[in-house]
Design brief:
Layout (H helix, E strand, L loop, with lengths): L4 E9 L5 E10 L4 E5 L6 H8 L7 E6 L2 E2 L4 H6 L1 E4 L11 H11 L6 H10 L15 H13 L5 E5 L7 H16 L3 E5 L3 H7 L2 E6 L2 E7 H8 L1 E8 L15 E3 L5 E7 L3 H14 L4 E8 L2 H14 L1
Parallel strand pairs: 3-8, 3-9, 6-7, 7-8
Antiparallel strand pairs: 1-2, 1-4, 4-5, 9-10, 11-13, 11-14, 12-13
GO molecular function, one term: ATP hydrolysis activity
InterPro entries: AAA+_ATPase, ABC_transporter-like_ATP-bd, ABC_transporter-like_CS, ABC_transporter_ATP-binding, P-loop_NTPase
Protein name: ABC-2 type transport system ATP-binding protein
């Protein structure tokens, strides 16, 4: 199946010589949620701007919805909806007129039933006749999504879509994203809320200093790079890690009542069994144990630091 977004050998160099994107190669599949993670200045927004036709590339080739973004710009852009980071709305328009106008910009015939559905899905229907200047920041963010969906795109870019949105609105927004995916819309999001990427994404890409350093299915990434932590609550306090355990990745808590064993998810059974057997052999009793898995945020931070060290 042809990918919905295909990026080949993409480079972006500014006049002063700064290279914002370095030989990016990326395919995004139809109907998936792809999360692009990276620190500020990594190149996320630059790449999105180029794919959406807002900025020019220095070299490379990109297709969107099967259309080359340079040779067949109009068709490519028609297939894309973009929710940018910055809120930019004409304050005196009503919500209904703003969304309807956005649809018209793409040469689409009026379709009131579609505009109504979008506004209802985003809990904006009651605000349809309100001027934008009267909306809260969260409502304005929803309006930006409504405008991006006005022309029924098959690809939706969400660049930091929940910045400044309260928890309830954020939850509603992600519910809407799930529904869009069910309808076959391909969704590419950037976010600083890494837990959202962990919850929502099918695949995750990590970009750093203009380079894609990793693209992986979320579940496989968590499995490959995730760490697990086993905490053993001891019956008696220890002053130090016993000598028999010094070769293991074991630490003692500050209060001396917990042993903390960190291990790779893939090595779980052998390592834990060995640890528990050794504790039994040397007569250390524990009254409880619990495990905790690495979050995507911890994995992401580890990847970026690993690249820095390299």
């Amino acid at each position: 199946m042809q990918p919905d977004i295909s990026v080949k050998n993409l480079n972006k160099v500014y006049e002063g010589g700064f290279q914002a994107l370095k030989n990016i190669n990326l395919d995004i599949n139809r109907g998936e949620i792809f999360a692009l993670l990276g620190p500020n200045g990594a190149g996320k927004t630059t790449m999105i701007s180029i794919i959406c036709g807002i900025a020019n590339m220095s070299s490379g080739e990109i297709t969107a919805g099967g259309h080359n973004i340079v040779k067949d710009y109009r068709k490519a852009r028609e297939s894309i909806g973009l929710v940018p980071q910055e809120l930019s709305t004409d304050s005196f328009e009503t919500v209904w007129k703003a969304v309807s106008f956005s649809r018209g910009l793409f040469g689409k015939a009026p379709k009131p039933e579609h505009i109504e559905k979008v506004l209802r899905d985003l809990s904006l229907w009651d605000k349809r006749n309100s001027r934008i200047m009267t909306l809260s920041g969260g409502m304005k963010r929803r309006l930006m999504i409504a405008k991006a969906l006005s022309h029924e795109p098959r690809i939706l870019f969400l660049d930091e879509p929940t910045a400044g949105v309260d928890v309830e609105l954020r939850r509603d927004m992600w519910e809407m994203v799930r529904k869009l995916r069910e309808d076959g819309v391909t969704i590419i999001l950037t976010t600083h809320y890494i837990e959202e990427a962990e919850e929502m994404a099918d695949r995750i890409g990590v970009i750093r200093q203009g380079e894609i350093i990793l693209v992986e299915e979320k579940s496989r990434l968590m499995s490959k790079l995730g760490k697990k932590e086993l905490r053993l609550q001891l019956q008696s306090k220890l002053d130090k890690v016993p000598g028999e355990l010094t070769l293991e990745p074991v630490e003692l808590s500050d209060d001396g009542y917990e042993l903390i064993y960190t291990f790779d998810s893939q090595q779980e059974q052998a390592g834990v069994a060995r640890l528990l057997r050794t504790l039994g052999d040397i007569g250390i009793d524990y009254r409880d144990l619990r495990t905790r898995e690495s979050s995507l945020e911890e994995i992401f931070v580890g990847l970026v630091h690993e690249k820095d060290a390299g």
